[in-house]
Design a protein that fits this description.
Elements lengths: L9 E2 L11 H5 L3 E7 L5 H11 L3 E7 L2 E10 L3 H4 L7 E4 L14 E5 L9 H11 L7 E8 L2 E10 L3 H8 L6 E3 L21 E2 L9 H12 L2 H7 L6 H13 L13 E6 L4 E6 L15 H5 L14 H7 L2 H14 L5 H21 L7 H7 L4 E3 L8 E3 L2 H16 L17 E5 L2 E2 L4 E5 L6 E7 L4 E7 L7 E4 L6 E9 L2 E9 L1
Parallel strand pairs: 2-7, 16-22
Antiparallel strand pairs: 1-20, 2-3, 3-4, 4-5, 5-6, 6-8, 7-8, 9-10, 9-11, 11-12, 13-14, 15-17, 17-20, 18-19, 18-21, 21-22
Helix pairs in contact: 8-11, 12-14
């Protein structure tokens, strides 16, 4: 399931390749069953000690009835670990002590405890949205966790970002993978790796320990003159992957990320493109749950150009938002994603997921919130203070947040030529919309759903001459098409034709 980043008539969803690592595990619509069996006396205290040392403990692990003896298990996380409850997040490495041991070709998986999420859905909803739109990030599911026979609660189970992930998504795995933790702001500090080693984690090629590519990228990002930024930045960074990351995290107001707290992301030096690609990570505080001192109302109405202060500490955002080309490119990307961020598209998924996990949520005596709060937060805001939890205050309802955030973004995007409505898909063609109608730079986006016939897309100039055409073959999982017209300024017509009908759109290139 490789990512596609070209702008010319490319699907913005994954291509599916059978039997890639984790395909069976993450594709199943089920709550998985994961069991740890520790044989050490006082294993819980030992897990706490090992958390400080960052080492795995041996345990027998069973996943959906399959046993993996002598696996590695350890606590993980920062605030998710340090909360007062005994429901801690875990990292599993099946191959830590047994070479090659894996489940569905996955050696490592992560269990997150949802300690600030009454709905249990924040992480799953956002990661599914990213996956459905071809935006780099791990896959996510649910699991019941048992420790030495005791049910310890419902967890989200998340794909690890490692070499298996890189090979699957990018077709290569030998480049440097950096995690922007704990302070991966991408501010240039100098040419010595020692100036960055406390702010980032090198996740691959640790023996070589070569940080020169990161330093070159950070240096260029901070020093390229503004007039050269548009043409030169792509030498170092996949700007499409960054715009995807920026747009998605802004839509979901996931501020515990680069766009807010300045961490919880990966960048991978893709050896095929020789560019850094952005990968989302740890999105459990999406839907405005990481507040950074702001009210819920302010978070729902977060500006698409939001940059935390001081803005110089987020150079990717600060430098690009300062240029009209990149402002429009970000607005276009948000505009392309917004049709699928709606109650009409997402409420059924919310209800289905809630039905899937409800029994296990109710049985979870270690969870932070009550059953009533779980039910209410699926659709309504909660004003809650839980003893021992840092998550007091207003917590956005999932459905209400989608409605209110979409309304805010729709209003903001009008200034960028994106006029979004809630019209139904055009009957027969499966095609919904084209965004933006006024193209200043970047790509056009055509959104569509459930196309059951081949569609021919043609572009005509103002004289009626056909300047481009492409055939999009029948598919059932098409999310959107992106088009880079590469045409001179003027008026253009886009015609979408299927066996059941046609739909035309127009746009103006400035």
């Amino acid at each position: 399931m490789k990512f596609h980043f070209s702008c010319l008539f490319v699907l913005s969803a994954f291509s599916a390749y059978a039997q890639d690592p984790g395909d069976d595990f993450f594709a199943q619509w089920k709550v998985h069953d994961i069991r740890f069996e520790f044989h050490q006396t006082g294993f819980w205290d030992s897990l706490k000690q090992n958390y400080t040392l960052d080492v795995y403990m041996q345990a027998d692990v069973m996943i959906d009835g399959k046993s993996y003896h002598n696996s590695g298990v350890k606590f993980k996380g920062n605030s998710s670990y340090n909360n007062a409850s005994n429901k801690k997040p875990f990292r599993i490495d099946l191959a830590e002590y047994v070479d090659g041991q894996s489940h569905d070709d996955l050696k490592k998986i992560v269990l997150n405890n949802g300690f600030k999420d009454p709905s249990f859905l924040r992480e799953k909803m956002m990661l599914d949205f990213l996956y459905d739109h071809g935006i780099a990030g791990p896959r996510c599911g649910f699991a019941r966790l048992y420790i030495n026979g005791e049910y310890r609660g419902l967890y989200t189970v998340v794909e690890d970002v490692n070499k298996t992930f890189l090979e699957d998504r990018y077709g290569n795995k030998d480049g440097n993978l950096f995690k922007g933790d704990p302070r991966g702001t991408l501010v240039y500090k100098g040419s010595s790796p020692s100036l960055y080693s406390s702010d980032y984690e090198l996740q691959t090629n640790e023996k070589e320990n070569d940080w020169s590519d990161l330093i070159r990228f950070v240096d260029a990002l901070n020093r390229i003159p503004s007039a050269q930024l548009k043409d030169s930045l792509a030498t170092y960074m996949n700007t499409d992957s960054w715009l995807d990351y920026w747009a998605a995290h802004n839509i979901f107001v996931n501020l515990d990320s680069y766009i807010g707290s300045g961490h919880n992301y990966f960048i991978y030096h893709n050896t095929d493109s020789d560019q850094f690609d952005w990968i989302s990570w740890d999105v459990n505080e999406a839907f405005g749950n990481f507040q950074m001192g702001q009210s819920l109302t302010n978070l729902i109405n977060l500006a698409i150009g939001y940059i935390p202060t001081p803005t110089t500490q987020r150079p990717v955002m600060n430098r690009l938002w300062g240029e009209s080309y990149w402002k429009q490119a970000l607005a276009d990307r948000i505009c392309a994603l917004l049709p699928d961020f709606s109650n009409e598209k997402l409420n059924a998924r919310i209800d289905s997921l809630a039905n899937l996990i409800r029994q296990d949520v109710y049985a979870d005596t270690y969870k932070t919130y009550s059953n009533a709060q779980f039910e209410q937060n699926l659709s309504q805001d909660l004003n809650i203070t839980v003893p021992g939890s840092p998550a007091g205050g207003m917590v956005a309802g999932i459905k209400s947040f989608i409605n209110d955030r979409r309304t805010s973004l729709t209003g903001q995007l009008k200034a960028f030529g994106c006029i979004s409505t809630d019209q139904e898909a055009i009957s027969g063609t499966g095609v919904q919309k084209l965004y933006p109608s006024l193209l200043r730079s970047g790509c056009l986006y055509i959104t569509g759903i459930d196309i059951d016939k081949d569609i021919r897309i043609e572009i005509f100039n103002a004289t009626g001459a056909a300047i481009h055409a492409v055939l999009v073959q029948k598919t059932t999982d098409l999310i959107s098409l992106s088009i880079d017209p590469q045409v001179p300024p003027g008026y253009y017509l886009v015609n979408c034709i299927s066996g059941n009908g046609s739909k035309s759109f127009s746009f103006v290139k400035e």
